[in-house]
Design goal:
Layout (H helix, E strand, L loop, with lengths): L1 H10 L3 H4 L1 H38 L5 H9 L2 H30 L9 H18 L4 H30 L9 H4 L11 H20 L5 H6 L4 H30 L12 H8 L5 H33 L17 H8 L13 H37 L14 H16 L10 H8 L1 H16 L33 H4 L4
Helix pairs in contact: 1-7, 1-11, 3-9, 3-11, 3-15, 3-16, 4-5, 4-15, 5-6, 5-13, 5-15, 5-18, 6-13, 6-14, 7-11, 7-13, 9-15, 12-13, 13-14, 15-16, 15-17
Length: about 500
Amino acid sequence: MLFNCRIAIAGCIGTGLFFGLGEILALCGPLGALLVYLHVCTVVYSTIMSIGEMTAFAPISGSIVHFVARWLDPAAGFALGWNYCYYAAIAVPLEITALTAFVSFWDTNPSHTGIYVGATVVGLFIINFFGVRWFGNSEILFATLKIMLAITLIIGGLVISLGGGPDHDRIGFRYWEDPGPMVSTLEPGATGRFLGMLVAVVPAAYSVSGFELIAISAAESKQPRTNIIRAMKFVVFRLVLFYLCSVIIVGMLVPSNYPGLSSQSPFVLAFERAGVKVLPSIINAIIISSAYSSANTCLFTASRILYGLGVQNQAPKVFTTCTKGGIPWVAVIVAGLFSLLAFMTVSSSASTVFNWFVSLSTMCGLIGWTVINTTYLRYYYGLKIQGIIPQGIYRSPLQPYAAMWAIFWSVFYILISGISVFWDFSASSFVASYINLPIILSLFVGYKLWFKTKMQPLSELDFISHIPTLEETADEGLLVEKLPLLQKIGIV
């Protein structure tokens, strides 16, 4: 199962890093990009700690949505389920759009974009209808490729920056001096540098979103309480290794004012600028396979969430219709229809459409982080009021302050997600930035009014029913008192 968690974590590493990092670098420079990622990573890790602690206490199938419905409000659980279904579905055209941008590295003819989009959409439907039996094995392969690629890019980038490239040019931190460590966006001077970081928050948050879904895999494994803590440690390791190291390396190799930085993978540009032959094409090919894999995973996930909502009577029963092989074909078709949105790249540039989808997807992730951490606070104070002290269960010493930190900044990110439109107004960008808020709110209010759900007092929250004991899950128990400090907070 731990291996499954590693695959899930690798699945979170995709176009947000391989493609979106270029835009972030162009918006706020290498130092600004590093600061933005550092800040966003603290919010992600705080959310992971909240999920990890709740899952260690109650390792139940469908953990995240179940926790929200149980300890916050059933209407919030319903809205969150649809939120993540939409999150996965809208990520499908996002990945396809990024794929077409990567293909333009070889084929710059814009009239061919529709062909690549169409071929990708057809391929996704074929795999999700007829190739599901090979899905697991293929994802293991793609996850391994992504991890190997990320490590290779970091090591290779470091070698080139130290003068190990064909031209033996020792780059170092040259581009931190010229054009500079930070970039002004929207406004000149210090104000512009601050605004640049605010604008970069959305693509940065998108690139690290999805890690919270690892809790679902952990909750449905053997020894779930032990495995969720191990998964948390892997998250920290990968956030530091893959994201922060990548930001530093790319910032060393590519100047923030380089033309086309926002429309191509900065990793490909870095090795191409260094004069390394063939390797940029190999990197681009693996990144394309990564984008295709991510699109496939998102379509699979969206269709299964939709199927699950149908089973729980939170969506029309037609979504539970399956083939003889057990494939929920109606859910696959409906989720797959979102992939057709990628054809918008035919009339607009890939980077523009990519940013629209990033805004839509990121808002879903930020809403999810806010709801999850709010649920954790009710869980935390509910246990405290009822005098329940979990024995042998992981509890973070940073809580409840980590959850409060995550809630504050998640709400802040939501509010500033469309900040750039107030300088250069675009109706499409404004809608993409904020349309999810009324959608999720209407789902919450509609369910609450229809079923007349109520938020239970903290003293009446259920911390007993259907929660397996340590013996039932075969967990040894992770007594916090017996753990070293770094292990207590999940760093090691």
